[in-house]
Predict the 3D structure of the following.
Amino acid sequence: MSEIILNDKEHIINTYKRFNVVIKSGHGATFVDENGKEYIDFSSGIGTNIFGVGDKEWVDAVCNQAHILQHASNLYYTEPQVKLAKLLCEKTGMKKVFFANSGAESNECAIKTARKYSYDKYGEGRNEIITLVNSFHGRTIATLSATGQDVFHKYFFPFVGGFVYTPANDIDALKKNINEKTCAIMIETVQGEGGVNALNPEFIKYINDVCKEKDLVFIVDEVQTGNGRCGYLYSYMEYDVQPDIVTTAKAVAGGLPFAAIMFSQKTEKTLGYGDHASTFGGNPICASAAYSVISRIDDNLLNHVKECRKIIENKLLKAEGVKSISGKGLMVGVELDEKIKAADVCNKCIENGLIPLTAKAKIRLLPPLNISFDELNKGLDILIESIKEVLK
Ligand SMILES: *Cc1c(COP(=O)(O)O)cnc(C)c1O
């Protein structure tokens, strides 16, 4: 076994069930392992490297800023985060931005803001946040508490109170869960870790409307769905809705740790001096990377994502062992025949030179958004062949 794998097992806490591959480098939508074997990358590093590996514009944005200034504290003004905040507001119509370093942190910020918004206006006791069954919002204690999956509610007691879980797409159940204690509703438009399940448009619209009617904070967790992944800059833009807070991370800086929390007119004044902070939030190198990424998510790229989706559906729906395709844009869930396990398909794909992901019982695909049709088709052929081999 590789020295790197042995040393990893000996010295790194064993929280990840890693595949037996050491990824050493890459180019575009291809990863290269320590033995020089190439893999088509249908993971983007869990949806982060949306322009693949070694993309020239992204590398230049990062390296140029590294030469100028790597970090300064948030007690001073720095240009990259201001440029990025302005761009995000212009492109979304949101009013203000806070920067953090990860998806979980961005949701922590949203949770804090929702509770303070309600406290400021209505006083104590109105602090419950409704999230969805099967959601995923992060690994900190508060965001684990927000996550509507029992498997995450073990060992680490006590969890944070004040979260209520309601089933996705069930408007009647949601109505029953809203009461005088409710202050916010938080959703992913497509549940990612929960199995790539897109919410019904009517359900999303109802949440938007009820939040307006009852002055609840409508939080959309776009950590995975955002930044072009679903064929829109942010996935909520497909619908006639106006979130009060949008959180995003994963792809926002193209593969560097970064997060943005965007606030509408309703919530832009909620957090004030001392209410929230982060040492690294808005870091100049990450902000420069994010500026370059966000400025390149244009109609061209979004149309490419939609074209790729068509190719994927056309090919996979005809493939042996595939029951259905879920998700939006280049956030793809592949439901397999019950006879086969996603993990077995994954292992076979890796053997055959493709890196996919899983989500619950499904194969999940999150390729770089600029993947070429040629690479996409090659990757799909490997996936189809691998499923066939597992079926045998
Ligand atoms: C990945 C993910 C998170 C957590 O992001 P981290 O950067 O790992 O903290 C939160 N919400 C959603 C929807 C995610 O997909």
